[in-house]
Amino acid sequence: MADHPICPCGSTSPLTACCGPYLAGASAPTPEALMRSRYTAFALGDARYLEQTWHPGTRPEHVELEPGLRWTGLEIVAADGGDKRGTVEFRAHWTAGRTRGVLHERSRFVRQSGRWWYLDGVIDPQVTTAR
Length: 131
Fold this sequence. Notes:
This protein is an alpha+beta fold. It has a single domain (15-130), classed as Nuclear Transport Factor 2, Chain: A, CATH 3.10.450.50. 18% of the residues lie in helices and 38% in strands. It is built from 3 helices and 5 strands, in the order αααβββββ. It has helices at residues 20-23, 31-44, 47-52, and strands at residues 69-81, 85-96, 99-112, 115-123, 129-130. Strands 1, 2, 3, 4 and 5 form a 5-stranded antiparallel β-sheet that branches. A hairpin with a 3-residue loop joins β1 and β2. The radius of gyration is 14 Å and the shape is globular. The protein starts with 19 loop residues before the first helix and ends with a strand.
């Protein structure tokens, strides 16, 4: 199975059959699929993909990845996607050295020009933790 690693997004599918095609340029069909692929991009250190899937109206000039931060698991809490707008609430687990934490966010997505874009997210500081 070393030739087909499991996708970091939490599915049990190989990366090549899950988020891999999106990272290679295919359009994600739903806000949840885009969210999962963006998590995978964080886990793999693919800042280019994060920039390419962030809506141009809300995207920062550069996406900086935190050195030493390792994403270790994703939980989808809720996902809702209509024709033009969607939301995904998730918990993303991470480690940095001996510190472990959870990022809890509710992300917003919009469908424009035939594809889904990440707009922004609201982080829940009461659930987002480091220990």
